[in-house]
Design goal:
The protein is of the alpha/beta class. Helix content is 33%, strand content 20%. Helix 12 crosses helix 13 (426-439). It is elongated and about 85 Å long.
Amino acid sequence: MTMVAPSRPTTPASASLGDGPPGRVPVVVVAGRPNVGKSTLVNRFVGRRATVVQEMPGVTRDRVELRAEWNGRIFGVVDTGGLQLSGDSLDAKVSEQARRAIAGADLVIHVVDTSVGVTTEDDDVARIVRTAGTPVLLVANKVDNERREADAWEFLSLGLGDPWPVSALHGRATGDLLDEIVRRLPSPGDEGAEGGTAPEDGPLRVAIVGRPNVGKSTLFNRILGEERSIVHDLPGTTRDSVDTQVDTEDGPIRFVDTAGMRRASRTEDGTEYYAMVRALQALDRADIVLLVIDATDGVTHQDQRLAERIGASGSPVVVVLNKWDLLDAEGRREVVDAVEDRLAFLGSAPVLKTSARTGLGVHKLMPALRAAEEAYHQRVPTGELNRAVRAIQAAHPAPRARIRYAVQGGIDPPTFTLFATRRLPAPYLRYVERRLREMFDLGPTPLKLRVRTRS
């Protein structure tokens, strides 16, 4: 597989980069030291609260990529974590992600904080930007009124040209800034872009979900072959949902790495709450869900609750037992029994034993995803469906009722309407569902059965 331009699903007003026009979309990277208002400025660009924002340093860690549009021009906006030359191992990984984004940008927005003034860290970031050789626009943020504009000029010492004074929080002068950004971007002819209409059918969306610290980001990076999500032993490292489109032999797939989800009562602060909201939004938009479980912990109560939430979304699910290599034979038997017992409501969802760290079993993911996708879109001819229903009733008739005929009313997931003489009890409907799944090889995809009776 090969990786193409990363993207992120958003609303139609600022759809993901992968949903844009054919050809290359220019990329604007928003960089700077921690807590200068980069994410607030990005949200202002795309017109909504697309990234997690809080008044504390280090909230953004992974680079988050969005699509924005201004005066008819479409461009990508990349929100990066704060660049820091000194710090712990997590800070170093965040800074490396920001460096990679700067290296691939068409334009860098270096954001500084006018209320604080020039700092040593600002000098460090300016030096990194100058070394990269990428065109740069210096933005002096937090200029909330005219009196603050004079303070912005001290940033001339950074050697990045005249500062643009704005207030990302209040929107002051951000329209003028966007005009300047669009002016500095490569012309549409250089990009090869043709219009701005998104195709109706986007790539398959696969959300990677699970509790904190079960290995979702490690699995995400293993699939992509690149460190797109920051991996650290600290639980909750991923805050925003990070997605990347991958080209496979069977077509493109968009994988979405989400923040770890746990009970709302245990979310520690606003950052964790908004990270969970982003994860739930990614789950609702997904075509297929990879539920990652830490095999060394077994199937916890929170795994059960999360599986129920996935089931309610109507998306097919593939269960991934990560860290399989750390279990002995007895531990493996116990966790398989736990999956069969506690996640039985997921039906015939495939269960893959993997190690994201070593790559064990990861090659089985693509076939499982494609099988789930095919079943999700499958349509059964009416004649075959009714022959199957007659065979099902002949083998096991419904109590005091009869299914007269059936039709498939929709796909994504397959939805069947059963026209019966009386209401069908729930156990019999489960029997019909199981037999239809077996007879038409519907695999792990959810099925919807609706019953209509004669008045």
